[in-house]
Design a protein that fits this description.
alpha/beta, 15 strands
């Protein structure tokens, strides 16, 4: 079951996550409970990139889907649903009610694309319940166990004093179950300007870029900023912190979650998810290294940084890499970061 983020309340910590706290405060929570009752997988769609990846994932794994969107969105994005259908992801779409971004003009439509649309819409709950009544209830033997999370000890000192820990943040599962499309862009160990190179070559070039950069910055995303009690991620965070401490002029900016900051943030220490270029332009960073940012968000950040800034963009990806970046490495774990550290 695919749910739109714009149907969640503005105050909700889960508005920009693909999850739900099921507090009873909106119809999305009702839909989540109904989905679990029917043995379905509910996912909140927070961006076009996530919709694209999820439909691809459905097609590859033999899932059908029940989705919710306004008619204007369907009309504009018809091709992606058509493509998913041809690849095997059959689905049914329900309309949603309320004032949509499309009816408010181009500016609000742009905000919606970036995740800044603040109007709350509503699902047609009665139609959903009636339609799913044909599907038998499934006994849930075990409820979804929510992960415990806290700041990683390696980056806690970089978290802004004004930042308040939310009820939920993007977990590692968001990458692992939404990467069907990423496999298609995999070109090998590493890429420089879209051309495949070895890890050694990529790291040597990155080391040279770091030495020559006047204002390099590393952006630490939720996969490493938070302690997920996973040894692999903890080791990667440890090596990254060692690199930060060793590089004298490397500035650190954090990306703790993907909720829009709506201008209420310090761009010198934090990146605004819908407007990542503002933080880079603020300090005139000429080299930007992304680590621990979820793949579907990394694609978005790369696109905006290349469009609005002159910075070189580097993605040290834990999965299939990002050829659109100026330099990207795939399956970048602690061992590979140690090899890069030996060059520094």
């Amino acid at each position: 079951m695919l749910l739109p983020y714009c149907a969640k309340p503005r105050w909700c910590d889960y508005r920009h996550l693909d999850d739900c706290g099921e507090c009873g405060g909106c119809t999305v929570g009702d839909a989540y409970r109904l989905a679990y009752q029917k043995g379905m997988i509910p996912i909140t769609i927070t961006s076009f990139e996530l919709l694209r990846d999820t439909l691809k994932w459905c097609a590859e794994n033999g899932y059908t889907y029940v989705g919710h969107c306004c008619y204007e969105f369907y009309e504009k994005r018809y091709e992606i649903f058509q493509k998913a259908s041809k690849e095997g992801a059959k689905g049914v779409l329900f309309n949603i009610v309320g004032t949509t971004c499309y009816s408010l003009g181009v500016e609000e439509e742009e905000k919606a694309y970036h995740g800044e649309f603040t109007v709350e819409l509503d699902l047609i709950k009665d139609a959903l319940v009636k339609s799913l009544s044909v599907k038998e209830d499934q006994k849930i033997s075990e409820r979804v166990q929510r992960r415990h999370f806290d700041f990683s000890p390696f980056f806690k000192d970089f978290v802004p004093s004004y930042y308040k820990k939310p009820k939920a943040v993007p977990t590692p599962e968001e990458d692992r179950t939404r990467t069907a499309l990423q496999k298609e862009v995999f070109l090998g160990d590493a890429t420089i300007d879209g051309k495949t190179v070895s890890y050694e070559t990529a790291f040597e070039v990155l080391a040279e870029w770091l030495r020559s950069a006047k204002k390099p910055t590393v952006v630490v995303g939720p996969l490493l900023l938070w302690d997920w009690q996973e040894e692999e991620l903890n080791q990667k965070a440890k090596v990254l912190r060692e690199l930060i401490d060793r590089a004298e002029n490397l500035q650190v900016k954090v990306l703790p979650d993907y909720r829009p900051k709506l201008k209420k943030y310090d761009p010198s220490v934090e990146m605004d998810p819908p407007n990542p270029h503002e933080s880079i332009l603020h300090d005139q960073n000429d080299l930007t290294i992304l680590v621990g940012v979820h793949c579907y968000r990394t694609d978005f950040v790369i696109r905006l940084l290349k469009k609005h800034t002159p910075t070189k963009v580097v993605a040290l990806c834990g999965l299939y890499g990002h050829p659109e970046a100026h330099l990207s490495t795939s399956f970048t774990d602690a061992e590979k970061l140690l090899k890069f550290l030996s060059l520094w």
